Prior knowledge:
Elements: H1 3-35, H2 47-57, H3 61-74, H4 93-127, H5 133-138, H6 145-155
Helix pairs in contact: 2-4, 3-4
Amino acid sequence: MTDSAAGEVADAKEAEAEAEAEAEAEAEAEAEAETGTDERGRRRGLVAPALANLAIGVPAIIPLYLTYWLLTDYLPSPCDAFAPDPALSNCDYHTLDHAPVMMFLLAVTGALLLMALTAVNVLTPRGREDDGPRRWLTTAPLFLVPFLTLLCLAKA
């Protein structure tokens, strides 16, 4: 064989080896996506999504408390706007005075909370090829844990 023919054979073998390596890498990536393991063979767990949602839960205490206040103090208040005598209505006027501010704060902080939850649990995992939102959405209710913990401690 001549040098050019030998070079062509070597190039063909090299291209074939590269194609096989690419096929193997693709197969590994598909297996990784199906089995939920990372490149080192470790299984992706729920620790990172759980910690992220618990971290979101700390600032989420504010809108959750505002919701709790509106449901427990404002809604059951016995205020009668058309009472002939305000003394007869047994109304807590401080609750009435605070309600518009609390509702405004709830709208603002609630919107921020929803944006944070959507960004962390839906948008970020969809941006990664090796991860989907399923793991993240299963741990999403953990953002309630810090508020519920504080609520239980306050009632005790």
